Amino acid sequence: MRTNHIITKGFVIAAASLLLTACQDQLEETNTNPNEAIKAQPEYLLANAIKSNADLTLGSDASMETTTLFIQHWAKIQYTDPDKYTVSIANVQNVWTNLYSQGLTDFATIIKLGEESGNTNYQAVGLILKSWSFQLLTDLYGDIPYSQALKLEETLTPKYDSQKDVYLGLLNDLKKATELINTTGAPIGGDLVYNGNLTKWKKFANSLRLRIALRIADKEPETAKAVVTELAKDKTALIASNDEIAQLIYLASPNQNPVSRDRETRDDYRVSKSIIDKLQELKDPRLAVFANKTVDATPTGYIGVTNGLPADSAAKLGFTKTSKLGDYFTAAASPAVFVSYAEVLFNLAEAAQRGFISESAPDLYKAAVTASLQQFKVGNADITAYLAQPSVAYNAATFKKSIGEQKWIALFSQGLEAFAEWRRLDYPQLKPAYAGVLNGKLPLRLTYPTGEQALNAANYKAAVAAQGEDRLTTRLWFDAF
Fold this sequence. Notes:
The chain is mainly alpha-helical. It has one domain: Serine Threonine Protein Phosphatase 5, Tetratricopeptide repeat. 54% of the residues lie in helices and 4% in strands. It has 20 helices and six strands. The strands form three sheets. A two-stranded antiparallel ribbon has the order 1-5. Strands 2-3 form a two-stranded antiparallel sheet. A two-stranded antiparallel ribbon has the order 4-6.
């Protein structure tokens, strides 16, 4: 009797288990959306991640409220605290979070999907964009989680790698990406940059390698020279015209340029006095592209705002008597530029001046200035007149000044890259914000987000100990002088 009872009870339990399993399977089938992809699709991830990163490079957190003000391309005429270097904790956190949890996570998934499907072109494009994202992060913060980042199954508290190691790792990753690209292989979808043109993706990767090589040139000249020498053997393997610029061209609302969207409801930015004064000094035809004339008549038609004014002083300048950002940059379809042809030429000019390649630095410099002017639709006659001015001519003895000032102009509204190159080249020699809060200094980085201090405290502390105080004024490794 007892044995039969136990056997009967066992069957009941087994049957109940089978019944529950069957019910669960039926529920899962019932709750499955037939229109929803079970597995991530690389083309959708790619499109989403490209736009996410593009939005970040032009948006409030990494650009409008930080780097574009630091570099004195823009200034504030209202709510001027950010222009005095009172950086919002939210801005700092958002840049970090959005790059790691959105762009980088999606790019890592695209790489994995490419590996699983055997499509090396998805692997390559994912690796290029992943490298670009890490470059943005280390340029802004310095030492960052890199080698252990995005490996949640291994650690939730990744170590911080030194900036030197990050840059060297990116150079290797980008070279690997160019080797993975198969221009006659499987196509890719979701490409908002080059519409599936894999030859241009290889050019983008090589141009990023050139950028990083110059970024480390003051600290690791031999490594920089080796990379540049390799790349210069075939300059057609780099971005070689304005038609090949790596950029996202936006669409109409609701997919418009973030600056355009911001200007729909706000009017607190103006063009900085620093750049308007320089453009006027050089009789630069890009002035009419970068800035709008004042609504009210003014002596020169263009009036910039001094960075970092107290709010009442800025307001007294008058909304109609100061220059707004040019229509080119506030148009819905205005592009987010990742790497321009002009930048590539400036980098080659500097490489020639440093002796990394045996070419004419003045000729490459002139070509770079020309490319920038053409990028902004300046006519040939105006280009010729501009280049003929002694104030624009290349000076080998002060090449960082020649290249630095013209690159600063060419990178107008590319706040992140302009901020990095200004720190590296030390030109133009900007004055700190009028009422800045950094004791007469300019920012040299972003501070780490408070989330890292709370959730990754041990590694955060180790990074600060290695790099220096977690302040806006702490000089990063690449910024040698």
